[in-house]
Amino acid sequence: MLTTLIYRSHICEPFPTEALKEMVAAANAKNGQAAVTGILLFNGIHFFQLLEGPQESVFEIYNHICADKRHYNVVELLCDFAPNRRFGKAGMELFDLRDYEKEDVLQRILNQGTSKYQLLYDDRALHFFRTFVEATEKENYFEIPRPDSWAFIPEGDGVTLEALPAGIAANCSFAFQPIVDPLAQEIVSLEALIRTPCGDTAQVFFSGLEDDALYEADLRSKQVAFRLAGELNVAAQTLSVNLLPMTLVRMPNAVDFLLAEIAASGLIPEQVIVEFTENEVISRLDDFTNAVRQLKAAGIRVAIDHFGGGFAGLSLLARFQPERIKINRELIRDVHKSGPRQAIVRAIIQCCTSLEIRVSAVGVEQPEEWMWLESAGVSHFQGHLFAAPAFQGIPAIAWPEMLTEM
Ligand code: C2E
Ligand code: MN
Description:
By secondary structure, the chain is of the alpha/beta class. It has helices at residues 17-33, 55-67, 105-111, 124-134, 202-206, 211-231, 245-250, 254-264, 278-283, 285-297, 316-319, 329-332, 339-354, 367-376, and strands spanning 2-11, 37-42, 46-54, 71-81, 92-96, 150-155, 159-160, 173-181, 186-195, 239-242, 272-277, 301-307, 324-327, 358-362, 380-382, 390-391, 393-394, 397-402. A 9-stranded mixed sheet has the order 15-14-13-12-11-10-9-8-16. Strands 4-1-3-2-5 form a 5-stranded mixed sheet, sandwiched between helices. A hairpin with a 3-residue loop joins strand 2 (37-42) and strand 3 (46-54). It binds ligand C2E and manganese (II) ion.
């Protein structure tokens, strides 16, 4: 199938036009063999390239392009299918925007096109050309430094409890993972993640539990989370716990139980945030918002977890506004390389900024993900890059240290 891919990237060092031409000539030979055609625009700083051809060949060449050390911040803007090639002339043409007048550069590019329909129909690919040539999206390019410009070195050893606190006979335990503000070097909150008594995952703990047994286990487990947090001396730290929305709706006196356990662990309600998963919230929103009122009345804050992972997305915020949202890992992974993810994350941030909802990013593993998100305005992060969850303990945190000038 004829596949179209468009990307944008940043040149590493300015190099002479001659070298650029050589580079294109070498690429041309390779692309020609793979039946990949297209056009390459250059504005002195950024490349913008459209590749068209058989899917496998396009992907292979694109992988090669991504690995090329002469450019960085390669962002995939479009990957789609088309009936005809737009730029079907053999090889890959280089179009240096600096050689043309601004007014007619777009028309000149389109003149290179080979699709007879190009000007008749609304074509996303050609709209990307216009946006690049007119530089209307430039403030969203977020040029991030190289990943090796920061080092992430864990500070200290963290703390671990040998056993559950005395008097707690539980069928579950918890791991704790910090949510951090890396530039301020502050822990924003500690999230309690449920585990089996021997440390197996949340999924293992919940497997086999259904309906009331599930909600009951979910609610009762919070006793262990609060006691462990108390024992770990979280002091004035904010503590995040997860609950199924239906646990709050279906378990009688759930809020009273939580409040009693918070107090018995030496904590206060104002330091607790309860996280609910987005797609479970939406299915019974009215029941849920009623139950949340009681939490709020008691001083407990609410976060929506896995935001963007369910089907509700931003429309949920029209009906319910939490104190925080946590952007789902699906949107965070490789965000620095993906135009669509960047657009969605930017929209979430913009919307939450208007609503004064704090945004955090979950599952951050790569320095580039973190750097891109910081540039986009996120300052709270959770992920292995900074600290993995520690079973019955609080892990050491790897704060970023700048190695080279940006
Ligand atoms: P969550 O609330 O989004 O918790 C974060 C999950 O992401 C945790 O998985 C954590 O181990 C994982 N994680 C953290 N950093 C990274 C990273 O950099 N990369 C990757 N790949 N993963 C990372 P975990 O502990 O397996 O928990 C899975 C989910 O189970 C949680 O997702 C939460 O929705 C649910 N859960 C955990 N504890 C409870 C609980 O007490 N009650 C309820 N109802 N659900 C819980
Ligand atoms: Mn969570």
